[in-house]
Amino acid sequence: GLFIAMMLSLLFLVLLRFTAGVLFWIFIFGVIGIIGYGIWHCYWEYDHLKGIPGSDLTVYDIGFQTDFKVYLQLRQTWLAFMIILCGVEVIIILMLIFLRNRIRIAIALLKEGSRAIGYIMSTLFYPIVTFLLIAICISYWAVTAVFLATSGEPVYKVMANQTLCKYANLTCDPETFNTTNVTKLCPGAQCTFAFYGGESLYHKYIFIFQLANAFVFLWLVNFAIALGQCTLAGAFASYYWAYRKPADIPLWPLFSSFGRAIRYHTGSLAFGALILAIVQLIRVILEYLDHKLKGTQNSFTRFLLCCLKCCFWCLEKFLKFINRNAYIMIAIYGKNFCTSAKEAFFLLMRNVVRVAVLDKVTDFLLFLGKILVAGGVGVLAFFFFTQRIPVFAQEVPVLNYYWVPLLTVIIGSYLVAHGFFSVYAMCVDTLFLCFCEDLERNDGSTAKPYFMSASLHRILGKKKLSPKKA
């Protein structure tokens, strides 16, 4: 199932080069058609209720009702629905009219991303490296956490009925427990292990050590992700800035980019990961406090924690966005983290509409791809487990409850597709930043030629300037 998911993901990425625009416009016109049908249905219901007693009442007249069907008997309700749908329809159509050129650029960049991956196929398998690095980080954190939790001396306590035994929950020694009077005074009592602990200064601050271990874990995981993003960005940037594609692309772009990231950009990547890890650790602490204070009746404290959790969640999302684009600029120009983050941020702000359009178009197509891959593998797995494929009928064991393996295959396929499409999303983001830099730094002249593809040239209406005009 996972192999089929890999093949379907690769097939979808290849087909995006030819079908990205078709899929997007089919979806858009489908949404317009559905909303148009909704407008017609609302008008039909509004006209159908004409003359029916009680249909001319207003929502204010009937007040609040728990049964929503009551509102559907009013003409005013359908009129409001029709006005809202008409407004949404007009907004979508106006956005398509005014943003049509930017949508074409977004689709062209998606096709260019598929072409870039076709030339640098090794990038599709780099998520395996990131997965292994994160697995090592998780193993380190888990082993360290277990050692910290078990670093004290074992503490044993008396387990007995608390109402009948006064020694219940008191510490005891399992070696001498049977020789004490506890077993006589409390029949059935046992000396069982409770936890690891101690009275030293080290044991008192064991929670702080666990918190530090969690912080190191978050830092390492974010560094592994940052290394992957910078490596992929460097490989795809080498594709974009090749004047003759694919002749001018380096021989081993992914390996070269990985070497540059390790040799020159480790400090910048670690600094970006550190900032994100601090915010994530604060979120972990807030979640811990919220769990501890859940039983309290102080509504102001819960409200304050809720606001803080929301603010730091937004801050984490913003930092991930900034870090991602900063790593791309680091891979392109090799500057430090702060300079790259500042240049990336202002570059995106100067092209904010293009950013929004590209982000939504990319999110839609990649989500559609994940659903198609997971759904396709799920259908094949369903027929496989139910023995409806004659070729495998003799090999499949009879299952009385096949939903668990079926869901496992579907979730695994979705994760595999997510891994492949994350590379594609990084490719599109890198090409977009390179495209914006290309527009600002070059003018199409002989001295400053554009590096963009011919399709982007045609969409922008850019032409190479003659030497005289240049």
UniProtKB/TrEMBL annotation:
Major localization listed first in the record, in broad terms: membrane
Bilayer-spanning residue ranges? 12-40, 78-99, 119-143, 216-243, 264-286, 364-386, 398-426
Report the protein's function: Choline transporter. Choline/H+ antiporter.
Query: What GO molecular function annotations does the UniProt record carry, in alphabetical order?
Result: antiporter activity
What protein is this chain from? Choline transporter-like protein
Q: Name one GO cellular component term.
A: plasma membrane
Query: What is the recorded membrane topology of this protein?
Result: Multi-pass membrane protein
What catalytic activity does the UniProt entry give for this protein?
Answer: choline(out) + n H(+)(in) = choline(in) + n H(+)(out)
Q: Which keywords, in A-to-Z order, does the entry hold? A: Antiport, Cell membrane, Glycoprotein, Membrane, Transmembrane, Transmembrane helix, Transport
**InterPro entries for this protein:** Choline_transptr-like
Q: What is the lineage of its organism?
A: Eukaryota, Metazoa, Chordata, Craniata, Vertebrata
Localization, per the record, is: Cell membrane
> What's this protein's family per the entry?
Belongs to the CTL (choline transporter-like) family.
